[in-house]
């Protein structure tokens, strides 16, 4: 497959073809309905019907949707300079400000240099102890709920992942800052609403969701401000956590208010990017395992064998092979970041199609991870695909749960370790069973959630 510079068209002297195939304008109403209701079906049907290059005209927007590993490599890595963060960026910025997720250019490079070292392997080892400790508290809580009826697993995972981030990144117990999880939810819901309504509803209208958004954002700012003040009074021993590094880096800012704002944006970004993705990963893993007794049994066996009855330490991660395979397969089927959107900074050509400057280009991990050319029985939950000793000729970019290229997830090691530890610690002593007559439906918001949260019955293993 040719990704760029369409040599055949060029050789014939005809230049690139105009636009990829896609649904006709007459289907606009259906597409808009899917955009509001079932975005995963929208993308999957487009890929099934039109192939690896699709033009999706949805309302006033035209999406250039590319669904092949070569295209993902080109957009996310090889020519990433030409593709800045795309759809939803404006809304995400209103929610998150100018943090690492939403910034570009020199500012992004500078921020990445400050933040990336916090997630290096030697620090992750220390973060492992925090994860194990927080997970033990959560498992103890679940134990008390065994046999009492459906438990909101997503809620449990969200508190856990926020708690872990508070302690690993900020050295703080976020449990004392009530409602922070709900504040993140309100901020995200509004950002998603603005995105889906394609900016048609002015943000100054005093609608209830708008007011909720402002209140939530103000609450988050206040929490982060308190954390920063507390830390400035109480520096850590090595000064190498995120907060200390940020405080140090914004000292160079001439206007202290700009520095403070940057720090708040950065922390809110990290907390949001890090907690919801990992909580979604765990929710989907528990859901998939709950429907597969054989996988559940193997997980239980591995957890008992590797961990015995002690808390996990970083070195255990390499031994929790099957557990990691289950996590990898879970985020293949349900990648928390289900869509990667970019805006072309200048004109380009992909797969022989002309991409105008300003075009919305989309790579969709959800559909890529189910591409029939690269995955056998793509709908099947089969952790064996990720057995480390199993040879595969699958292209690297057919599996991109953490993105790729310069904008690759900074927190991937922490996220993977946390998911594996929590899964192992829960499966070691508990069984999570599906609740009959309660369907589990994916909801593609900023991340891929379980609609209404995942509820499961908890039993002792
Ligand atoms: C299983 C859990 C996670 C998944 C699936 C995930 C996925 C992703 C993906 C796909 C991207 C790239 C987005 C794009 O290119 O548009 C990303 C970026 C990012 N992630 Fe994660 N993430 C996870 C956990 C975390 C954690 C634990 C943290 C931090 C504590 C984190 C912080 C970030 C940040 C700051 C970025 C932006 C990086 C940049 O643009 O330079 N993530 N994540």
UniProtKB/TrEMBL annotation:
Heme binds at residue 409. The lineage of its organism: Bacteria, Bacillati, Actinomycetota, Actinomycetes, Catenulisporales. The keyword Protease does not apply. Pfam families: p450. Its cofactor is heme. This is Cytochrome P450. InterPro entries: Cyt_P450, Cyt_P450_CS, Cyt_P450_E_grp-IV, Cyt_P450_sf, Cytochrome_P450_Monoox. Belongs to the cytochrome P450 family. Residues 1-14 have a biased composition (Low complexity). Gene3D superfamilies: Cytochrome P450 (1.10.630.10). Keywords: Heme, Iron, Metal-binding, Monooxygenase, Oxidoreductase. One of its GO terms (molecular function) is heme binding. Residues 1-26 are annotated as: Disordered.
